Amino acid sequence: MARVKPIFPNLVDPKGVDCSNDRRPMSITTDDLRKELAYKNDGKPTVEFAGNSNDYVAYQFIDLLHTLQIPRSDGYDESCFIVMGQVKELLFQALHFELYNAKHQLDQDQLPEAIRMLSRARAITEYIAKSWDVLSTITADGFNEYRDTLGQASGQLSFMYRHVEFILGNKSERLAKAHSNIPHVWPKMKASLESPSLYDRVIAFLARRGYAIDAAMLERDWTQPYVANDSVEAAWRTIYDSAKTENPLFELGESLVSLDDAFSQYRWRHFVSVSRIIGHKPGTGGSAGVGWLRQVTELHFFPELWSLRTAL
Ligand code: HEM
């Protein structure tokens, strides 16, 4: 394909945008007010607003959001890459939020709430995996047009993604260290590395429910990646051997597997898309590239929930 130069419509003038992240002033409405407004508008949406903004823009900082895509090249595909990268970052944040809250619900023995959050976490992960439908339209040539301008920028430096990996139990002191020079990011990253993961809390929850879990699984060095354990597998085996559909612990196990499954799809699609875009070239982040990505496709966060299936 002939090289196409992008034309940027520049739909927002950045000079007019308030860059603060303080909550912006907004109105509050009620059922009665909304009814009154719809009556006054003859059923049509409102189109006149006082001041220089409106509640939609103010609520989600929409004008600011749309000024944060700043390409570094003339490469046509870069715009797609930036927007999809940012979309994925937001989805990692949404995913982490659900996992963080599910962990806290489990700590309070609120199992149905935790399962609901895990179900949303699974849906978000599937959505993240789907993002490769768009990203894989970036061609090898198209990527080369802006690749040098990325410097060492790589998704492996996503602190939000690293929080997701850590809360799911795939700890790595080495990968955490990549963020130690950023003072507004590092304290939470360190805390995340040193805290029990969601799965560690699931195991503590099983122990509270009377399953015989090795003491070493309930108090260990949380900075270390999770390693499969026989007592945990035995607990899941008992749960999976008992009545299924009525058993909320079986539902918990299946929610975790579905999430792990979706995450594997995400990793696999990343690996395949990257193979398609850069072949066997090294990554921008200093790794061997697809060799590294292939290796991480093997990982499961909740290993016993997979290994027990051989015996079922
Ligand atoms: C479309 C072009 C892309 C290519 C060619 C690509 C390539 C790579 C490569 C080669 C790695 C290994 C580390 C390294 O850079 O050396 C990597 C890691 C990673 N990439 Fe991408 N990537 C792409 C897009 C994205 C996007 C849009 C995201 C989302 C923000 C992303 C997220 C990640 C993450 C989270 C890792 C770390 C994986 C891990 O630690 O297990 N990638 N990518």
Can you describe this structure in just a few lines?
The chain is mainly alpha-helical.
Share of helical residues: 55-70%
Identify every distinct bound molecule in the structure, by name, code or SMILES.
protoporphyrin IX containing FE
CATH architecture of the largest domain: Up-down Bundle
How far is the first residue's CA from the last residue's CA? 53 Å
The count of helical stretches stands at 14
Element order, helices and strands? HHHHHHHHHHHHHH
SSE blueprint and pairings:
Blueprint: H1 31-40, H2 55-60, H3 62-65, H4 78-107, H5 111-135, H6 140-147, H7 159-167, H8 173-177, H9 186-194, H10 198-208, H11 230-241, H12 248-278, H13 290-296, H14 303-307
Helix pairs in contact: 4-5, 4-7, 4-10, 5-12, 12-13
The chain binds protoporphyrin IX containing FE.
Protoporphyrin IX containing FE binds at residues 81, 84-85, 88-89, 135, 138, 154-156, 158, 161, 270, 274, 277-278, 283-287, 289, 292-293, 296.
Give me some keywords for this one.
312 residues; 2 domains; mainly alpha; Methane Monooxygenase Hydroxylase, Chain G, domain 1; binds protoporphyrin IX containing FE
3D architecture notes:
The protein has 2 domains: 14-65, no CATH class; 78-311, Up-down Bundle (Methane Monooxygenase Hydroxylase, Chain G, domain 1). It is 55% helix and 0% strand. It has 14 helices and no strands. Helix 12 (248-278) packs antiparallel against helix 13 (290-296). It is globular. The structure holds protoporphyrin IX containing FE (HEM). Protoporphyrin IX containing FE (HEM) is lined by residues 81, 84-85, 88-89, 135, 138, 154-156, 158, 161, 270, 274, 277-278, 283-287, 289, 292-293, 296. Protoporphyrin IX containing FE binds at residues 81, 84-85, 88-89, 135, 138, 154-156, 158, 161, 270, 274, 277-278, 283-287, 289, 292-293, 296.
